What we know:
This protein is mostly helical. It is 76% helix and 0% strand.
Amino acid sequence: MCLSIMKRFGFGQRVMESRILMEAEEMINKVREKQGRPFDVRQLMMSCVANVIISMSFGRRFDHCDPAFQQLMSDIDDFANNVSQALLTFPVLRFIPHFKRMMAKYVSANERVLRFVSNNIAICAQVCNWSIMIIVRCFIKRRLQHLSLHFSLT
């Protein structure tokens, strides 16, 4: 099922290649703008990869300066930085204050990312093909159910 969903989004076709090339050109332009000055390439790489995924999922890309997109990148970074292997291995640790704070940050970042996805699904529903939207909604719904089983607060 996942392979068929990815094929509908352009995986293995020229559509995906053009989206990746467009984002690679954007990355090259951003690097040129730095004019040889040092900068953190991690943020740029994360933004470019996210834009490829977003353009495949929602049919449009975001400008790197877009406040909503910058907030999404910040939330994803918070989401990734507040995952603790110890917490994943020993869920009972979530009751210890340090891990409780980490879990709260993780959950709030997760909620903001999901809100971003929901808002973009609503926008896409107005302009996209309904058959693709049904697939996207089913995929996201199952993924959220899977995540909620692993990361419940109670």
